[in-house]
Design goal:
Helix content is about 35%, strand content about 25%. It has about 400 residues and is of the alpha/beta class. The chain has two domains: about 10-185, Flavin prenyltransferase-like (Rossmann fold); about 195-405, Rossmann fold (3-Layer(aba) Sandwich). Strands 12-11-8-13-16-17-18-19 form an eight-stranded mixed beta sheet, with helices on both faces. Strands 2-1-3-4-5 form a five-stranded parallel beta sheet, with helices on both faces. Strand 16 (about 325-330), helix 13 (about 335-345) and strand 17 form a beta-alpha-beta unit. It is globular, with a radius of gyration of 23 Å. The structure holds cytidine-5'-monophosphate (C5P). Cytidine-5'-monophosphate binds near residues 260, 279, 280, 281 and 314.
């Protein structure tokens, strides 16, 4: 991600346990060249000391509206004007409700009303509070006013429960914020501006013992190129990648995994709020049932390894109650189109990109490739070309179909 030097970010911290992660967020925003000023609600100061944020941001922290000493410096209206972006992280259910109601009963809510800067919020709360219709209705109102909601993630919560409501990790927040911002500014006309997309790429490695694994020939090039192309169309892209030798594409948040099961968890933890899912990874269908903790010695003349099925990540994403627009790949050695059509139907995908592998033509470990792209009532041939160009053509087609379906 290209830093945006000189961008002024007003970070609003409200009173949830995720407030401690906001400290790291300040550091990461500054690393990206942003100037950060922090405003805390009274409840937030019960979780983290303002001194922490002062040290990290390099500026005094504002906590109250009616503080004559603070108002004698940069007063709250100047602060509202200073901000290029306002980021509220963590945003509690209470803060979200107060924002939705348009209240200005403390410094933070007052600043939100007083600023013309785009507003981003990163919700963080108990999963039941997140699911509550009151919270969802409040968020809907805010979204209609143009507020961008980043996350939340799904997983284990500080309260011991499981589900949606975890604040996105600071690195993820920064990338999503800057990517969303980039799409809002530079790619405002991009067909995927503001759309959250996720791409899986690369192979998986399934351990046999601590030094050996079962793998495959996927280089990750196609998935990486698709991730970059989607970001180029304005999407905020998270790339869940198996082991590859590739650099992270510009403007993309990358999460590294090794096994199919790790890829499965990494995807499902982050899928809430994703509108476009492209599964380009060559996920191992099977893994050794009993990987051994010590290196296997060559004692026996024959070694039998029992394999068990891995979860089908793409099928699981497509089977979610309200699934994102899902795009699969089908790498086949024979009857390419028939197999791809079967996959499109059985996995209930919106689109599938099929290619022939194993011959002298495109596919794994090559720079060129050709694709037959199929969807329930249409198809398009993308002829042999370099993978980066092919990825751009495919991303455009995905965007076209995604926009047509939403
Ligand atoms: O069924 P098959 O493995 O051929 O399907 C290929 C498609 O499904 C690809 O898009 C691949 O990324 C995805 N897939 C997956 N999880 C698996 C196996 C395949 O997401 N365990």
């Amino acid at each position: 991600m290209v830093p945006i030097p000189g961008m002024n970010i007003l970070l609003g911290v409200s009173g949830g346990i995720a407030a401690y992660k906001a400290a790291d967020l300040v550091r990461r925003l500054r690393e990206r060249g942003c100037a950060v000023r922090v405003v805390m609600t009274a409840a937030a100061t019960a979780f983290v000391s303002p001194l922490t944020f002062q040290a990290l941001s390099g500026h005094p922290v504002r906590t109250g509206l009616l503080d004559p000493a603070a108002e004698a410096g940069m007063d709250h209206i100047e602060l509202a004007r200073w901000a290029d972006r306002v980021l509220l992280a963590p945003a509690t259910a209470d803060l979200i409700a107060r924002l939705a109601a348009g209240l200005a009963d403390d410094l933070l809510t007052t600043l939100v009303l007083a600023t013309a800067a785009p507003l981003y919020l990163a919700p963080a709360m108990n999963q039941q509070m997140w699911r509550h219709p009151a919270t969802q209705e409040n968020l809907e109102r805010l979204r209609r006013r143009g507020v961008q909601v980043l996350g939340p993630g799904v997983g284990s919560q500080a309260c011991g429960e499981q589900g949606p409501g975890r604040m996105l990790e600071p690195a993820e927040l920064v990338t999503t914020l800057l990517a969303a911002d980039r799409s809002a500014t530079k790619a405002a006309a991009g067909p995927l501006a503001g759309v959250r997309a996720m791409v899986t790429a690369g192979p998986t490695r399934e351990p046999l013992d601590p030094v050996r694994y079962l793998g495959n020939r996927s280089s990750g090039r196609m998935g990486y190129a698709v991730a970059e192309a989607l970001a180029g169309l304005g999407a905020a892209v998270t790339l869940i990648s198996g082991p590859t030798a590739l650099p992270t594409p510009t403007g993309v948040l990358r999460v590294d995994v090794e096994t199919a099961r790790e890829m499965h968890s990494a995807v499902l933890e982050r899928i809430a709020g994703v509108s476009l899912f492209v599964a380009a990874a060559a996920v191992a269908d099977y893994r050794p049932a009993d990987p051994v903790p010590q290196k296997i010695k060559k004692v026996e003349a024959e070694l039998v390894v029992r394999l068990v099925r891995n979860p089908d990540i793409l099928a699981e994403v497509a089977a979610q109650p309200s699934p994102p627009f899902t795009v699969g790949f089908a790498a086949e050695t024979d009857q390419v189109e028939d197999h791809a059509l079967t996959k499109l139907r059985t996995k209930r995908l919106h689109m599938i990109a099929a290619n022939r592998v194993g011959g002298a033509v495109g596919g794994f470990e090559r720079n060129d490739n050709a694709l037959t792209v199929l969807w329930p009532d249409g198809r398009r041939e993308l002829p042999m070309m370099p993978k980066t160009q092919l990825a751009r053509e495919l991303a455009l087609l995905i965007a076209e179909r995604y926009v047509a379906s939403s």
